[in-house]
């Protein structure tokens, strides 16, 4: 690689990084959990882009939710869960390290459960009889729990000939709650436990519509299958037949899920989801119930996950639980995940382990990608120059064999071979970065670690730039790349049109995309300019020198000789 080009890239990188290193960055909301750590630690200030000190775990009284006196609070550095003694339901799930972006609860800890609802409200079905356990009053083994290590909460309740024993088990370093229990009087044929896991998660994001579009039920039988809330028909219940290893209700960044793959009871037998009859055409709420078999002994068990969709946490659980937050569209997911998972890991690693702001990590990543692709781009662009050099010969062949397509194709292949030209080689500069760009689109759509990450004037790299500066900058840099790349080329009307049309089209397309994606694309454009400039100089050297002007008096001399 030309040494001058390396210095040009280093200089541009320094210009891009200097402001972020010298200026104090935006706000620090609440500390974030670091993946699947083995020890729960207090929240610490995030480096670079969030310089204010992290707030401690916020007490539950600071949330917008009023907690009933019969609620057992279970607190750890990661969460505050509330178990109601009425029905032994989970009625509070506050994530202490994630701030809400919603207008009504902004900067307060995320609360997953909608007001007036709960999870795990149970109904026991025995033959033709049913008993609503959610109406029972339970006696807890403690009125409050501080989770510093594995700890249990036991609840007992009874009505008539039925008694219920429940045990919730909590850990300080993850969001998984173990649930086990026993119901008396089930009978020799066993029964069925219907568990409430709806009506959907509370809104936690500034863009309410985007969060509502992400509301979905995800089930795992063979592959993970998603049923969007918006696809449910109001007043028409939908039944999903199991058995399922897990069933989840998700929003854009958070999830509550019933996990039954390690249960001896046969997993989850089915799911029903019913949007209210008065719901709009695209519902944002649904009564979701999961059925769990109960054996003759009355014993049952499963796990509940109520927390963020941190990839490391989901991956650690296993059984493809990370598919609850898929990177890519169905049928396309396997291919794109080859890029998304390493890119997500690298950005999070540079932020958490190297202490770099996510914006700086994106700039470095963009430069690294351009350097890695430099040799292939160089080869492809030279192939494009070779194609330009043989254009006169190609035109001659097209004119000569315009009535014989077979002969024309044969002669063109011979021409390519004689001049060592690969007709498809010039496509590489456009095609090579595309999978990475597309993977980054999904990384910014799905990665909770990037949620709320600020950089310079950008308040959130996962959301559009409110000032539209970065997409305009991306368009300008794209124009610059095209302008430099056309130096030394024969200018056609099509090329002149594309010089302006493509940057405008891409700016309009990207204007509402994540600002981090625009930042990456702008860096890619800037770091490709030195290579375009070098090849433009090479293209100019290959061009034949212009014909010298005729000598003065040459016409007169020619006439006299004649």
Describe the structure.
This protein has 562 residues and is of the alpha+beta class. The chain folds into two domains: 60-325, Distorted Sandwich (Beta-galactosidase, Chain A, domain 5); 352-542, no CATH class. The protein contains 13 helices and 20 strands. The protein has helices at residues 3-22, 208-213, 311-317, 333-352, 358-389, 391-400, 405-419, 428-431, 434-446, 469-485, 493-510, 515-542, 554-561, and strands spanning 71-75, 79-84, 90-99, 109-111, 122-126, 129-132, 139-140, 144-146, 151-159, 162-170, 176-183, 191-196, 216-220, 224-228, 238-244, 246-250, 254-259, 268-274, 287-294, 299-308. The strands form three sheets. It has a nine-stranded antiparallel sheet with strand order 7-9-10-11-20-17-16-13-14, with no helix packed on it. Strands 6-5-12-19-18-15 form a six-stranded antiparallel sheet, with no helix packed on it. Strands 4-3-2-1-8 form a five-stranded mixed sheet, with no helix packed on it. The chain is elongated, with a radius of gyration of 31 Å. The chain starts with a helix and ends with a helix.
